[in-house]
Amino acid sequence: MTQDLGPGIDRAGATRANWAEEAVAAAAADEAQLAHAETQHPHAGSEHLTREEQVLARIAKARARKARIKEERITLAHGAGGKATQTLIEAVFLDAFRNPVLEKLEDGAQLAPTWTNGVTGRLAFTTDSYVVSPLFFPGGDIGDLAVNGTVNDLAMCGARPLFLSCGFILEEGFPVADLQRIVASMAAAAQAAGVQIVTGDTKVVERGKADGLYINTAGVGVLERDVVLSAAAARPGDVVLVSGPIGDHGITVMLARGELDISADIVSDTAPLHEISAGLLDAAGDGVRLLRDATRGGVATICNEVATAAQVAVVLDEASLPVRPVVNGASELLGIDPLYVACEGRLIAVVAPDRADSALAALRAHPLGEGAAAIGTIKDDPGLVLLRTAFGGTRIVDLLVGDPLPRIC
Question: Please, which pLDDT band fits residue 3 given cuts at 50, 70 and 90?
Fold first, then answer.
């Protein structure tokens, strides 16, 4: 029996995947324990707070605690881009490598080296690894994803991408024809983005040790504009923009695995964002506070990063979110929220209110931005992301601990 799920979606059977992981259960237990402790032993003065204010105070207290990884082994949740990833980064990597550049935790490092001749230049530098499964999916493959992803991280720093490196970890027995297809895809993506792949490395591991192929790319770009983009720069009154429909890539990859008996007319949105971001910066200048590509964790994760870094509230309007009906239908079936589903060719921009119209017009003037929309505003309440629902209510949009869609990039 086939179930009609709306335009472009069919479902055979009624199987529903269970996404619960140990990390999710552990985080829920911690939050419950914290809430119980606060109820039994409230802080002095808390009796004068409303119930909502007490909840917000507990959230702020939990976020202020030093990150500590509790699991003894790495789980899939640690690579999902949510709370578990944030804890891993802060408790392990940031704690070991701490420096002023790294502490910003942006998509790329913005550097101002001084050369031996005394000339000072501004560069952006980033790196990323790609483990997407399957390697080939509608609209792209791991090759163009690896190029576009690193180009986009540079573009989100406000840089013009110049050079990439690429490292391949190949599994014994991997088909040479597939490798050639992936490399050709990378070459085409690099040419389209105007970058050169100038160095690389290849390793081969035993059969069964690498799931076919993993790729790492690093990139360098030049910062030609006198702007500093940062999540901490968001201010009350600013407007949140998105460059097009969200969730296409994550849903495409999930359905391409063929595990859910669902078919849908959808392709990945993987694309280089250097041109559309440059047009936005030209139009709105220093009114642009932040650019981010909405990859792992989707729009919701970016908004939480902004709220935490700038100590503001990000208030999203559900009715304004551009989501294709096919993505909505598949998300409802899978029990996930499109706000958390990854994109690979969409950017989020936070811009000053007096530049919002020109910024939105610049996005819509580019082919990748035809579906651009204003989706929210920045408010005063510290450290929260709120969604005004279509029913007139408001709910908190928190970071996820795990990821219902692992290995989508």
Answer: very low
The span from the CA of 278 to the CA of 366, in Å, is 11
Predicted TM-score (pTM) of this structure: 0.78
Long-range contact set of residues 189-195: C-beta below 8 Å, sequence gap at least 24: 189/143, 189/144, 189/147, 189/148, 189/151, 189/272, 190/147, 190/164, 192/272, 193/147, 193/148, 193/151, 193/161, 193/272, 193/274, 194/161, 194/274, 195/147, 195/151, 195/161, 195/162, 195/163, 195/164, 195/219
CATH superfamily of 231-396: PurM-like C-terminal domain (3.90.650.10)
pLDDT reported for residue 41: 53
- The superfamily (CATH) of domain 105-222 is PurM-like, N-terminal domain (3.30.1330.10)
Percentage of the chain beyond pLDDT 90 is 58
Mean local confidence (pLDDT), 58-71: 73
